[in-house]
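WARN no homologs supplied; continuing
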Amino acid sequence: MAWRSVDVDEQRIRFVVAAGRGESSMTALCAEFGISRQTGHLWLKRYRAGGVAAVLEQSRRPLHSPTRTAVEVEARVAALRRERPDWGARKLAVLLSREGLEIPPATVQRILNRLGLVRVEDRHPPALGRFEREQPNQLWQMDFKSPKGWDQPVGPLSVIDDHSRYAITLFQTGTTRAEPVREQLVQAFTLCGLPEAMLMDHGIPWWNCSSAGGWTQLTVWLMKQGVRLYLSGIRHPQTQGKVERFHGALEKARRLRGLPEPALRQRWLDDFRQDYNHVRPHEALGMKTPASRWRPSLNRFDPDPPPWQYHDEAEVHRLGKTGQLKLNGRRWQVAGALALEQVQLIRGEQRVLVFYRNTLLRELDLVLHGSTMVEPCRTRYLP
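OK structure emitted
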């Protein structure tokens, strides 16, 4: 069975689950979620018709666009693009201006997108805006630096606190295997406490493109620690801007200071981290140091956390050895990394939502026998 993947909006999923189960009246639910009754009925109607995917934000593009760029202008933009396929919207706008066509680069870009003249891998949607968590340890960003200049298959592993820019971890693992990463996280959690959430990219070892939902043993381990997980957009490094900027500072230091012999490089990284946290003024912090804004988390690390307790009325099933769920006389693949783990089922009129702990990971359609996968690291959690 082919997998389909969708992103999930927390408010909408919480609402349709509650509405579908008849937990309260529609009026009461709409008041609780701060939406109109019209919106509530619309969300529920979409969910009943198409499941989780149908609840997502619908396009607000108008059916008719009277101010749309003339066909002749679009044709000229397309011709210039084909003549110079390596040129972007800004350069093409300059050529159009020389021909007497004053068209903003943003309009040129929209034309290129509309005509299918921009490769998917070249499309970089803008970030929704700069953000910063209000307190330390609300979010840690984690990534590997590029291997360029490090004579290793991968650059150092970095973990940065979103609020303070404090470098929690900077270690040359030399590999993206899960076990060395887990060892560094155990050390970080032991010394600094647990963050509320962590943000990573679609990379190994916290993401597995061949696994249902991308789940790996490392992500399951993090979930058992009570850490919420989020994934950045594919080919959208701006989402992890703080760790990317940290890597920029690290790369500049490497180029200007030079690296010692391999046996001394971890000591070099330790010195850099100390200097970055406690000495180097940070412009984004008003020239204060990251250490001045960071403090250890009060959420202490437990190497052997207790099992997750679903509420007494919950319908709980244990997955099989390959991460499959037996339901209604058939086997549904949920996630191999969750083999033998317990999941909760929330039944609707014809659909079943499958949760691991409090995270929605799959939607089953009992009528059409379909299964919709929900990436765990993009999922918002239910209470």
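The first helix runs from residue 10 to 20.
OK
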